[in-house]
Amino acid sequence: MTLSVYHYIENTWNSEEWKKGLLRQRFIEWRREPSIVRLAKPTRLNRARSLGYKAKQGFVIVRVRVRRGGLNKPRPNKGRRPKRMGVYGYGPAKGYKWIAEERAARKYPNLEVLGSYYVGEDGLYKYYEIIMVDPSHPVIKNDPKYKWLQDPSNRNRVFRGLTSASKKARGLRKSKGLKGTVKHKWSRKQKEREEKKRHEASKYYRLQRYDKIPGK
After folding, report:
1. N or C: which end of the chain has fewer CB within 10 A?
2. How far is CA 19 from CA 15, 43, 62, 174, in A?
3. How many CA atoms lie within 13 A of 162 on its CB side?
4. Three-state secondary structure of the chain
5. Coiled coil: which residue ranges (predicted)?
6. What's the rounded Cα separation, in Å, for the pair 116 and 131?
7. In angstroms, how far is CA 13 from the centroid of its own chain?
8. Do 95 and 109 form a contact (C-beta atoms < 8 A)?
9. Are 120 and 27 a contacting pair, CB within 8 Å?
10. Around Cβ 85, how many Cβ atoms within 10 Å?
11. How many CB atoms lie within 10 A of CB 25?
12. What is the pLDDT of residue 193?
């Protein structure tokens, strides 16, 4: 079977040589640029195409830089234990990808967020690229695949939690079928045992060897 060009793009992106070479140099350049930058074309073409990007009029790619780490909470000046000060260990309730999408939507209020994907991260920031669409553009209006964006029910969809990243942060990705059930959990562990990826010294594995569970 002939492999597509997107297969080779993905392999190149995941290679250590790429991460330590050109991508690292790009992080240095991106730090000096504004936090929201409009791009001429996507950096990861395979991910952009899989999320619906087309190289046609009406599509815009925006790179957003989001600061990593937890929240910078104020340290109280009243007496209490450091453990109870509520300063460390708190992160945002939203995912960083959702935050990046909202910032891009505020920067370009006439565009709608179609999707986003992860580009990379350094010691201080995470970088995402947002796929945005102009619903008022004639090319988008005449495209049967994307004209649903001009419907009033899809306006400001990123602020109403309708994008893929926002649905994941809202907990709507939980399974409606087999995944997440006890049977799926057992089959996943059994597969790990067959591939020898599971540590068989665990408590539940040892108890399978007894007809009567000790202490019961």
Report:
1. N
2. 7, 13, 21, 32
3. 12
4. CCCCHHHHHHHHHHCHHHHHCHHHHHHHHHHHCCCEEEECCCCCHHHHHHCCCCCCCCEEEEEEEEECCCCCCCCCCCCCCHHHCCCCCCCCCCCHHHHHHHHHHHHCCCCEEEEEEEEEECCCEEEEEEEEECCCCHHHHCCCCCHHHHCHHHCCHHHHCCCHHHHHHCCCCCCCCCCCCHHHHHHHHHHHHHCCCCCCCCHHHHHCCCCCCCCC
5. none
6. 6
7. 16
8. no
9. yes
10. 13
11. 10
12. 77
Identity of residue 127: Y
Residues 6+ apart with CB under 8 A from 125: 30, 31, 65, 66, 67, 68
Give, in order, the Cα–Cα distances in Å from 88 to each of 32, 70, 149, 169: 29, 8, 41, 21
Q: How is residue 147 written in tokens? A: 């004209």
Distance between CA atoms of 168 and 162, rounded to whole angstroms? 10
Residue of 151, 102, 100 whose CA lies nearest to 129? 100
- At 79-111, the pLDDT tens digits run 999 888 989 888 888 999 999 999 999 999 999
pTM: 0.77
pLDDT of residue 179: 62
Tokens of 170: 């809202």
